[in-house]
Prior knowledge:
Layout: E1 15-22, H1 29-37, E2 55-61, E3 64-70, H2 81-92, E4 99-105, H3 111-123, E5 127-132, H4 143-153, E6 158-161, H5 171-179, H6 198-214, E7 223-231, E8 235-244, H7 247-254, H8 259-276, E9 279-288, H9 296-301
Parallel strand pairs: 1-3, 1-4, 4-5, 5-6, 8-9
Antiparallel strand pairs: 2-3, 7-8
Helix pairs in contact: 6-8
The structure holds guanosine-5'-triphosphate.
Guanosine-5'-triphosphate (GTP) binds next to helix 1.
Amino acid sequence: MEPVVASSIETGNQRFGQVAIVGRPNVGKSSLLNRLVGQKISITAPKPQTTRHRITGILSEPRGQVVFVDTPGIHQGGSDALNRQLNRTARSGFDGVDLVLFVVQSGRFNEEDAGVLELIRQSGLPTILLINKIDLLQDKTALFPFLAQMQTRFDFLALYPLSAHRDRGFGGLLDLIFKHLPSGEPMYDPDEVTTITTRFMAAEIIREKMARLLHDELPYKTTVLIERFSEEPDLTEIDAVIYVARDSQKGIVIGSGGKKLKDIGSLARHDLEQMLQTKVMLRLWVRVREDWADDERAVQSLGYQLPE
Length: 308
Ligand SMILES: Nc1nc2c(ncn2[C@@H]2O[C@H](COP(=O)(O)OP(=O)(O)OP(=O)(O)O)[C@@H](O)[C@H]2O)c(=O)[nH]1
């Protein structure tokens, strides 16, 4: 999508910038992005590695525009092509970025967090530390030693404890973000909330339903490819293929008598109808593509972009 110059936002003293949301898997990056932009953009699920792509959310206010970049969690230890791809995408998340939001879980800072912080250090970018999930702390005073510890690790612009689940307003955080963005005019139309396509959203929604319904049974190396996406005024027809790595995983996704696949399809169809505001005819297939995660070309052909 080509950026367009917004004409209906007042210009003059405005701020514009790209803000990367980074952190190890499962700390709540997607939840935060959704709350910051005010709608469901990036899928969230209890399973780590839900987000595999760089997704942007756009927030437009009279004082300026923020383009949020949601990067996949940075994984350590994995060495197959999929993991390499994920890591590259995460690193490329820093390209053109003005400010970093580094998300950690309150009271927890492990080696993986340290690895992400190292990438931030290498980027030299100004960074705000977001300490998420403070609702999980029984004793809120436990936050103080954690804050003190985090201050010794890096020269953060600010340390900001919050709960993506509980907090009502993110006004204070947005003030902080805007304050640290360069002056500039909006790049996108204020009506746009994301630069991702509906086609891509459809695949993400199907993947979210799989994660929800299959829980720990969800094969890690699963992906969804939209083969056909035909939009009529009242009806959208979508053909999607769920790729798994082995024959045995096919049975898990289909379920006994096809029940799992049917449930995944009907939950996904419900969300898609809401998003597209049309009736949706969704056809799902499950196909085996052996070892696709080990083959870089296969990974890319399934829609994982190499950074330019
Ligand atoms: N209790 C609590 N749970 C949260 C909070 N924020 C997010 N979660 C949960 O943490 C899990 C992971 O959230 P996501 O937003 O998908 O995390 P992520 O960092 O984007 O994860 P990846 O896509 O794997 O990188 C989900 O089960 C969320 O519901 C919070 O403030 N409090």
